[in-house]
Amino acid sequence: MPVPEPGDVLYFSFDDGPSPTWTPRVLDLLGTYHATATFFQIGQEAARAPDLVDQVRERGHSVGNHTWSHPDLTTLSSEDVREQLTRTHDVIGLARCVRPPMGVTNASVQEVFTDLGLTEQLWDIDTRDWDHRSAQEIASAVLSQARSGAVVLMHDGGGDRSQTVEALTELLPRLTEAGWQIRGIPGC
Question: Which of 113, 123, 147, 183 is the most core-located residue (most Cβ within 10 A)?
Answer without folding.
Answer: 113
